[in-house]
Amino acid sequence: MDLCKKFNKNLDKIEVSLIRQFDQSIAAIPGVLRLTLGEPDFTTPDHIKEAAKAAIDANQSHYTGMSGLLELRQAAADFVQEKYNLTYNPDNEILVTIGATEALSATLTAILEEGDRVLLPAPAYPGYEPIVNLVGAEIVEIDTTENDFVLTPEMLETAILEQGDRLKAVILNYPANPTGVTYSRDQIAALAAVLKKYEIFVVCDEVYSELTYTGQGHVSLAEYLPEQTIVINGLSKSHAMTGWRLGLIFAPAAFTAQLIKSHQYLVTAANTMAQYAGIEALTAGKNDAELMKVQYIKRRDYILEKMAELGFKIIKPDGAFYIFAKIPSGYSQDSFAFLQDLAEKKAVALIPGAAFGRYGEGYIRLSYAAAMDTIEEALKRLKDYMEEHA
Hints:
Blueprint: H1 18-25, E1 33-34, H2 46-57, H3 70-84, E2 94-97, H4 99-111, E3 117-122, H5 128-134, E4 138-143, H6 153-163, E5 167-173, H7 185-195, E6 201-205, E7 229-234, E8 247-250, H8 253-267, H9 272-282, H10 289-309, E9 313-314, E10 322-326, H11 335-346, E11 348-349, E12 351-352, E13 363-367, H12 372-388
Parallel strand pairs: 1-11, 3-4, 3-5, 5-6, 6-7
Antiparallel strand pairs: 2-8, 7-8, 9-10, 10-13, 12-13
Helix pairs in contact: 2-9, 3-9, 4-5, 4-8, 10-12
């Protein structure tokens, strides 16, 4: 008897994240400096932790409703209204989830069916494709490498027309992981104008929205196309709350009525104490990300200068906390081999670009969600490595 043969065959299309695989593969190297994961080095602000403690002391240890606490959904509605000019009814257009990852799972499993296709600008965060594959749908990548990782309306429309009736959705992640690219108001309006012509869902992963470094701030596509857009967000990056696992879905009421079905049977409801912390984060802590942004910008600019001196080509990121750099000519363009050698010889760990799909090969991703002294030492070691292997 071999019951392993009876698992969902779509699992054969899925691997454990290459990001996690590589990070674990170098973890045992003595003294390794890891600029790998999207994990803010900041701690959750004290006032948010105190709100969670108060909820525990008040015995708030029972289930909330499936949609989450109404007070949290109201806080979320007020937050996106003030920050991004988005209007959602907390009663029936917002769901509280266990992180943005569950929000994505609930959304994609609800809207996709066997044989559907989903467009995704690439290189891209590798967490979307496994969910899509699990339901028997297919990711179709749009190569943005020749356009500084920016999706244009022309590229988008061409890709939509090529897919025909099988196209069900487009996933847009910005500010983007791994490139840090984001979009201006004019660019968003132009993309929305294309999408509006087609009967497809738009899933916008905006979890880095509070870490936007342009003067205009983040512009959500849902401002222009609310009737087609499902917005995914959360508190992991904006409030350094990765371990709290608190995410949000914003969508039209008719969509939410369907999304809550997949959400309910995945998780029932998000952690109650974390939800009370989330209320504090989105009200008293609505601008908590500002202090983090100051440090992120300093780190970004330092890395850009140092890596440019070493010959890396980098498109300046305007959001998130990643540098996505082209490996200079004369060095191995196999990103896994290049970084495995760097880790073994200099105890510096970055993420291979190939972990973000075929269009990421030849690049490396560096996370600057790490302390400045760690970044400085890591870049010193990188410089030594590059000079020794020139």
